[in-house]
Inverse folding.
């Protein structure tokens, strides 16, 4: 009989968990949505109204932006603030949890620009 091996740094083998039980898979799926990380990225500069986000994210539909903002609010990454103005205004801003996640995205940005081969990397020609 041979001893079972475990991956270093993991409490259990990834296959031993259902995907809906894995926190890392949950957050990667959330960030993997086409617009979520971009919405967070644009909110890092401060609170924005829906129209400001629409301008910052060309190609997103109003319906998808609303869905993404709702999902980000549900996961406590973004907070929605209703303003007592006429017409009623709504602003969105990062929560402390959202700011911590954006700090990780900042590190990913640095890695992508420098750690993957620098500015001559053809994947970075945007």
């Amino acid at each position: 009989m041979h001893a079972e091996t475990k991956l270093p740094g993991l409490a259990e083998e990834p296959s031993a968990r259902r995907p809906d039980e894995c926190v890392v898979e949950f957050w990667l799926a959330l960030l993997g949505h086409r617009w979520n990380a971009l919405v967070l990225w644009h909110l890092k500069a401060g609170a924005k109204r829906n129209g400001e986000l629409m301008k910052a994210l060309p190609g997103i539909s109003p319906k998808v932006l609303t869905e993404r903002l709702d999902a980000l609010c549900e996961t406590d990454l973004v907070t929605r603030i209703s303003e007592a103005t006429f017409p009623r205004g709504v602003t969105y801003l990062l929560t402390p949890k959202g700011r911590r996640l954006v700090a990780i995205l900042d590190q990913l940005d640095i890695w992508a620009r420098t750690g993957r081969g620098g500015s001559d990397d053809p994947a970075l020609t945007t």
Summary: The two ends are 54 Å apart (CA to CA). The longest helix spans residues 96-115. Confidence is low (pLDDT under 50) at residues 1-14. The helical segments are 23-32, 36-43, 50-56, 62-74, 96-115.
